[in-house]
DNA sequence: AGGGCTATGTAGCGAACGCTACAAGAGGAA
DNA sequence: TTCCTCTTGTAGCGTTCGCTACATAGCCCT
C-alpha cells in the first residue's frame, strides 16, 4: 500500500488553497479532501474532527497572511501618512490579495458570531497587520502608534465599503479625511 | 383544513427574527419553517425556492434596518462632528443593534463572495445609513457630504475591528483621528 | 520471524439538506 | 350541485454531511 506520507503540514497548504478559492462556508470534508488529493477519511484521521481542522487551517492561513505582509514590506519608508495610505491601498488592491480579502469577510463573520477558532485567527491577522502598519509609518511621524491605528480604522472601513459596492463612498471619505488626493 | 392564511408578508417577520438570532449560514428550510410556525413545504410553496426566499428576506431585513435608523433619528442635530460620532457609536452599541451587527458580517461576507441578493441588500443598507448620517451632520458643517463619508469609513472600520476583538485598536484610532476624546 | 504501530482504502451509518409528488380540505364560480 | 383553484399535510426522493467500523499493507522493534 503506497504511503505518500501525508501529514497536517503537507495537507494544510492545499487545504488553504481550496478555501482561498471557494470560501469557508461551503468547505466540507469531501471537497477539501479532493483538493488535497486524499479522502475525507484521512482528513479526520489527521485532524481528529472538522472543527480542529478548520481551526488549524485558519492558523495556517494567518501565517500565510503574515508572510504576504512581510513580502510586501518595502525597505524605504513613506515620507507622509498620505503616502503610507496610498501604498497600503495599492497593496490591498493587488490580485493576490483579493482572495485573502474575500476569505477575510468569512472569518470576520465567524468571529462576530463566535465560531471557535475564528476570532483568534482574525485577531492574529489584525495584530500582525497593525504591526506591519506601524513599521510603515513615516519616520518623523509625531504619533506612529496612534497614526497607525487611525490609518488601520480608515483602511478597514474602506475595505468593507468596497466589499459591498460602496467603493465611491470610501474614496470620498478618504478624500474628506485629507489623507488622500483625487 | 384550516387556512391560517400564511403569505410572504406574514412569514417574513418571523423568518427575519430567526436569522437575526441564528445567522444566515445555518439558515436551512426546516429550522426556518419551524421558527415561522409552518413547514419547509410551505416555504417553498410561497417563495418558489430557497434562493428567492433569502433574497426577499434580505430585502425585508434591509427595511427593518432602515426603520431602526429612522427610529433612532433625533430631532436635534449634534453640534460638532465629534458629537455626531459619539452619538452614532452609542447607537451602534445598543443591545438591539448587536443582532443586526452580527448578521451584518454574514451579509458582507456573502456580498464579497458574490452570493445572489447579498450585495444588493448590503448596498441598500449602507446607502440608507449614509443618508441617515448626512442628516445627522452638524448644521454648520463645511462639507456635510464628505464629512458623512469620512465618518462612515471610520465607523465601519471601528465596527469591524470591534467584531474581531480589536476594540482597543479602533478606540485609539478614533482618538488619534481627533474625532473622539478619551 | 513475529507482533505491534502507523497510515490508508472501502463501505456505510444516521442525519440533514433542498425539493417534489400526491392527496385533500376549503371556498368561490358555473 | 359540480368543478376549479388556492392552500396545506404527508411522505419521500436523491444528495451531501461529519464521522466510524473494519480490513490491510508497510514499517520498526525485539
Overall pLDDT confidence of chain A: 93
Low-confidence stretches of chain A: none
User: What order do the SSEs of chain A take from the amino end to the carboxyl end, as H and E?
Assistant: HHHHHHHHH
The CATH topology of chain A is Tetracycline Repressor, domain 2
Q: At the first level of CATH, what is the class of chain A?
A: Mainly Alpha
Radius of gyration of chain A: 19 Å
Q: Describe the biggest sheet of chain A?
A: none
| Share of helical residues of chain A | over 70%
Number of domains of chain A: 1
Detail the topology: elements first, then pairings.
Two copies of one chain form a homodimer.
Chain A: H1 8-22, H2 29-36, H3 40-47, H4 50-72, H5 81-92, H6 95-113, H7 118-136, H8 144-163, H9 167-177
Helix pairs in contact in A: 1-2, 1-4, 2-3, 4-7, 6-7, 7-8, 8-9
The structure holds a DNA duplex (30 and 30 nucleotides).
Could you please describe the fold and organization of this structure?
The structure is a homodimer of 182-residue chains. By secondary structure, chain A is mainly alpha-helical. The first copy, chain A, has a single domain, classed as Tetracycline Repressor, domain 2, CATH 1.10.357. Chain A is 74% helix and 0% strand. Chain A is built from nine helices and no strands. In chain A, helix 1 crosses helix 4 (50-72) and helix 6 packs across helix 7. The first copy, chain A, starts with 7 loop residues before the first helix and ends in a 5-residue tail after the last helix. The structure holds a DNA duplex (30 and 30 nucleotides).
Amino acid at each position: 500500500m503506497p504511503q505518500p506520507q501525508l501529514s497536517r503540514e503537507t495537507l494544510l497548504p492545499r487545504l488553504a488553497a481550496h478555501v482561498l478559492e471557494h470560501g469557508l462556508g461551503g468547505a466540507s470534508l469531501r471537497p477539501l479532501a479532493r483538493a488535497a488529493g486524499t479522502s475525507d477519511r484521512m482528513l479526520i484521521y489527521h485532524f481528529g474532527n472538522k472543527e480542529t481542522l478548520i481551526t488549524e487551517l485558519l492558523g495556517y492561513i494567518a501565517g500565510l497572511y503574515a508572510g504576504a505582509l512581510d513580502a510586501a514590506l518595502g525597505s524605504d519608508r513613506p515620507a507622509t501618512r498620505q503616502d503610507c495610505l496610498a501604498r497600503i491601498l495599492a497593496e490591498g488592491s493587488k490580485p493576490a490579495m483579493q482572495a485573502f480579502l474575500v476569505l477575510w469577510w468569512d472569518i470576520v463573520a465567524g468571529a462576530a458570531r463566535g465560531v471557535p477558532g475564528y476570532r483568534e485567527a482574525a485577531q492574529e491577522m489584525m495584530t500582525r497587520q497593525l504591526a506591519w502598519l506601524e513599521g510603515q509609518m513615516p519616520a518623523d511621524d509625531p504619533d506612529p502608534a496612534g497614526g497607525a491605528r487611525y490609518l488601520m480604522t480608515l483602511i478597514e472601513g474602506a475595505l468593507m465599503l468596497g466589499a459591498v459596492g460602496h467603493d465611491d463612498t470610501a474614496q470620498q471619505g478618504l478624500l474628506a479625511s485629507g489623507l488622500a488626493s483625487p
